[in-house]
Design a protein that fits this description.
The complex is a heterodimer.
Chain A (H helix, E strand, L loop, with lengths): L4 E3 L2 E4 L5 E6 L4 E9 L5 E8 L2 E4 L8 E4 L6 E5 L8 E9 L9 E2 L3 E5 L1
Parallel strand pairs in A: 2-11
Antiparallel strand pairs in A: 1-3, 3-8, 4-5, 4-9, 5-6, 7-8, 9-10, 9-11
Chain B lengths: L3 E4 L2 E5 L4 E7 L6 E7 L5 E8 L4 E4 L2 E6 L4 E6 L8 E7 L10 E2 L3 E6 L1
Parallel strand pairs in B: 2-11
Antiparallel strand pairs in B: 1-3, 3-8, 4-5, 4-9, 6-7, 7-8, 9-10, 9-11
Classes of the chains: A mainly beta, B mainly beta.
């Protein structure tokens, strides 16, 4: 059973370009969470998704950021018109559908976005 | 709103020492608390998950405790080794229905010297 897979591992974008980060949850997991870790800062929750639904996006910036988790395929975190302040490590976590509050979160290796 | 704090921010110990990492949280209605390890440039590895009904959990040389009334959790590492060097993070969901919308502490950066 492969773990949470994120790609790419490293992504370089010029200011103004779009960044697309992908996350494939562990097999059997239908809950996906995105977190951001800014340089020298802690991990901050961004968005929580289930298949085809955004459950909570309270941690996501209101502009330029969007997330989806389609019925088929990976979850996508999309950042439009990137700025230098978006440079960070973006982590995805997944958990199973049963007993949501009882289960561990399993994290991917992260995507390190650098905006130049 | 749950807030999580970890002290100290950094810790350096000689190999073989037993050590304790501290985690404090503000909402005592905590449902569970997780401890993670993060190596530089890597993702997070889950170490231990303590449910609110439990007082402690053990895995190998690691033991984590949870005291809801005082708003504290500790991670005890026995006989530390250089390979234990990493950043240790504790995290908690804000409520039962929040799943794994975790609030993280700032982490403790541990260095175990040979």
């Amino acid at each position: 059973n492969a773990g949470v897979m994120q790609n790419p591992r490293h992504l370089v974008r010029r200011r103004g370009q779009e960044a697309r980060l992908r996350c494939s949850p562990m097999k059997g997991h239908s809950h996906v969470y995105w977190y951001r870790q800014l340089p020298e800062e802690g991990l901050k929750f961004m968005v929580y998704l289930q298949k085809e639904n955004i459950i909570d996006e309270s941690g996501m910036p209101k502009e330029r950021f969007s997330a989806e988790f389609p019925k088929e395929g990976p979850s996508i975190l999309r950042i439009q018109q990137v700025v230098r302040g978006d440079s960070a490590a973006y982590f995805c976590a997944s958990s199973p559908s049963q007993g949501v509050g009882d289960t561990e979160a399993f994290f991917g290796q992260g995507t390190r976005l650098t905006v130049v | 709103k749950q807030e999580v704090t970890q002290i100290p921010a950094a810790l350096s110990v000689p190999e073989g020492e037993n050590l304790v990492l501290n985690c404090s949280f503000t909402d005592s209605a905590i449902y569970n608390l997780q401890w993670f390890r993060q190596d530089p440039g890597k993702g997070l590895t889950s170490l231990l998950l303590i449910q609110s009904s439990q007082r402690e959990q053990t895995s190998g040389r690691l033991n984590a405790s949870l005291d809801k009334s005082s708003g504290r959790s500790t991670l005890y590492i026995a006989a530390s080794q250089p390979g234990d060097s990493a950043t240790y993070l504790c995290a908690a969901p804000p409520s039962y229905n929040a799943g794994n919308m975790l609030t993280f502490g700032g982490g403790t950066r541990l260095m175990v010297k040979p």
